[in-house]
Structure formats: C-alpha cells, structure tokens
Known about the structure:
Helix content: 10-25%
Radius of gyration: 20 Å
Bound molecules: 1,3-dihydroxyacetonephosphate, magnesium ion
Number of strands: 15
Amino acid sequence: MEKITLSVIKADVGGYVGHSSVHPALLEKAKETLAGARSGLLVDYHVTHVGDDINLVMTHHQGTDNEEIHKLAWDTFLACTGEAKKLKLYGAGQDLLADAFSGNVKGMGPGVAEMEFVERPSEPIIIFMADKTEPGAWNLPLYKIFADPFNTIGLVIDPKAHAGFKFEVHDLIEHKKVTFSCPEELYDLLIFIGAPGRYCIKSIYSKTTGDIAATSSTQRLNLMAGRYVGKDDPVCIVRAQSGLPAVGEVLEPFAHPHLVAGWMRGSHHGPLMPCGVDHATPTRFDGPPRVIGLGFQLANGKLVGPQDFFADQAYDEARREANLIANYVRTLGPFEPHRLPLDEMEYTTMPDVMKKLAGRFEPA
Ligand code: 13P
Ligand code: 13P
Ligand code: MG
Ligand code: MG
C-alpha cells in the first residue's frame, strides 16, 4: 500500500513587529515558493503562522528526512528571509543557522515533525504549532491525550485503544532515546517527561496496530547554535479517531493552560494560551505563549481543511484562565519560578556580572 508523508517544517525568519507575528508578504512568498515546487514533488501544502514562526505543512510521497523536501523548505525560508530583509523585519533570518543547505534541515535551525503512514479510509489529523515556548511543551498534553483516562475515555472504552500506547522519549542533552510501554510503565515515563526542558516525547505508537499516532519537533536551537538565537517554538502532529484518541480527546488538554518555558526573551515560565490563527500574535510581555491547532482530513494526500479548532468559543475560558495566570506570574518579575532557573536562561548577564564581582566573593 502506498504511503503518504506529512512534513511540518517551521522557522522564524523575521518578526513583524518585534517577535509578535509574520508579515503577510512572507506568507505570500512561502506559498509562491511551494506552489513553484517541481511538479509531482508535493501532493499538497498549507502555509500558516503562529506568532513570528512560519509553518509549512506539506504532503508528499518522498518519505521522512527527504533531501528534496528539506531543500524546498530551506529555499522557502531563504526566499522569505529576502522579503524580511527588504522590510527590515526583526531578526531577519533568525532561525537559519547555516549559510548553505547541507542535505537535511535538522540541525540547521528549522523545526521538523514528519510522519509516514498508510492513509486510513478516513484520516483526521491535527497539527499543533506553538510560539514562545520549547518542544517539551507537548509533554503534558501528549501524556494526557495518550495515557490519561480522565482526559481520554477511549483508553477505557475503545477496544482498539485499550491496550495503550508506546512513547518514544528523547534526552535532548545527551542525545539518547528510550521507549516506554504504557499504561504499564506510566510512572517510569513520568519521571522523565515531567522534566520537559530535557526529556521530550518524540513519537507515540499504537500498541494495537503499531501505527504511528503522534510526532513532534525536538530541535533545540539554542543548544545547536551554542548561543541565544530564539526559542525552539515547536510543532506536533497527531492522528485521530478509529483506535486513536478522538479529535475532542486530542484537543481536551488545551482547555486548561499549562505552564511552559519561553515567553519574554525565552527566559520565563508562562501559561500556554490556545488561540485561533487570527489571534496567534503574542503581545503582552511578548506572550503569553500561544498554541494553534489546525485540523485536516487527508484525502489521498490532499489537505482538506484547515479547521481552526482553538478559534472556537469553547476555548474562551482557557484564554481567560491564561490571562489570569499571566497576571499572577508577572507579579514575580525577575524572580524564579517566573524567570527560568539559571541553567535554562537563554539570555543571561550572569557570566559578565560574575566576572565583574570575581574579586569581591570571599569564603562564607
Ligand atoms: P460519532 O458517533 O459522531 O462518529 O462520534 C464518535 C466519537 O468518537 C466521538 O468522540
Ligand atoms: P521567538 O523565539 O519567538 O523569536 O521569541 C524571542 C523572544 O526573545 C521573545 O521575547
Ligand atoms: Mg522571533
Ligand atoms: Mg517564535
């Protein structure tokens, strides 16, 4: 059976205004570049943005980690960077760490989530895209969707979901991976994914069918670049229904905003606010961090959609709750736990301050 590949590749190549959004000229340029791809390369595509990140959603038959697809994404971001430079947008080319494409965009700046599968008779998919946060932001919602019966009743009453799911977890510091079979190994899983700055859920598989159910981007730009170059605003693909969580079960964790790392200067904890694409423009203190969720039905690789899920009024209360949490944590100003712990700070004056005060430190 022929397989389809779904690739979501994203980058921030210049913010409008500051780090708040993407200028329409860049989205146009991205669409134009993908439309100009060689005939037969893509089956379909959709261009969107969350905050200052451009997201390219592409379907094709080239498989994951395909050089031609990655080069197309790279060239698209380069073309958008050209527009960004003309308009003097903020941080033009921010996420493109290399001068020239070298076979795969992983490690070059852009974030990547890809999966290859046989399209089911009906194939509902949801793509989550976030700004002002990091890949570990998906740990809590993915846990709830695929392991928590209080979120996903399908784990209890759907015979095809009852066996549970396998979670592939990556250690982003030591570059190792480990797979947990749940529900048996839930507690082992949680000790790791409860530390989302280091351990991230990369992919999830159905234990009933072996099929891939979810995958996320796990690039950490600052770790790759070795200096502050923006947050690693992540993306995540989830397949739904027919033995997998229902669409509403996939969306449910976002009804309560959880705290994520990111926000102002990539250095603060704040609530992840679900919103529609039209409201995916971080403002207050460059936030709060945003997440959009776009639904598509795949039809022979065609992206039928999107359905802009979080634009719905059912998420009004989540937005209100996020604003209340934002009000509260902002009162802490430069104090932890609003500010990230020292080892996670993206921008920090600590080394310079330490140098300046070196002679004044005495044994205590
Ligand atoms: P339908 O009966 O509308 O298909 O819904 C089933 C379901 O899974 C709802 O979550
Ligand atoms: P981005 O990572 O979204 O570019 O945000 C950077 C920042 O410094 C926000 O305050
Ligand atoms: Mg930016
Ligand atoms: Mg961003």
